[in-house]
Predict the 3D structure of the following.
Amino acid sequence: MSGLYVDSVNKEFGLNQILTDVFISCKIGEVIGLLGRNGAGKSTLLQIIFGALKAGHKYVKVNDKLIHTLFDSRDLIRYLPQDSFLPIHVSVKTIIAIYCTSIQAAQLHELAFIKPFLFKKSNELSGGEKRLIEIFILLYGKAKFVLLDEPFNGLAPLHIELVKEGIKAAAVNKGFIITDHDY
């Protein structure tokens, strides 16, 4: 199967079974919503798909490549956790250079809403500004599948609209799985 294919995911914490035989798939061009209450296992599932969290059992494949660890997924899948992944005391311009190719970085630098942040350090940004930068780094990155864990948390309404437009535009070449508990 072409695309991201996830099957038979099981995860427990202690005696609590969190996920049981979960199946989800995503193709390039799709934006899949994963909705549920807090504590339902949405974030856990994304971490397992990405390879950041071990599962009791899982089968994760992108095209013909099996994903077991973070190393396996690094150029195929990217993950936006709920907490910021930006290194502190580093300029946004440098962070973009770390995560993006020079062509992708140049495209990001030209976005009107990114320009004001380029020479600020990540620790000088608000939570919503960090979130916006993180999301657009992933949207412009080379991974074909992007997992966004509650991406709209902490964003101003204007930034939410920018992110929605960015996801729609990027979905031409990527597949997305997005979690949310506000539904």
Notes: The beta strands are 4-13, 16-26, 31-35, 57-62, 65-66, 77-80, 145-149, 175-180. The chain has one domain: 4-180. The chain has a mean pLDDT of 92. The radius of gyration is 16 Å.
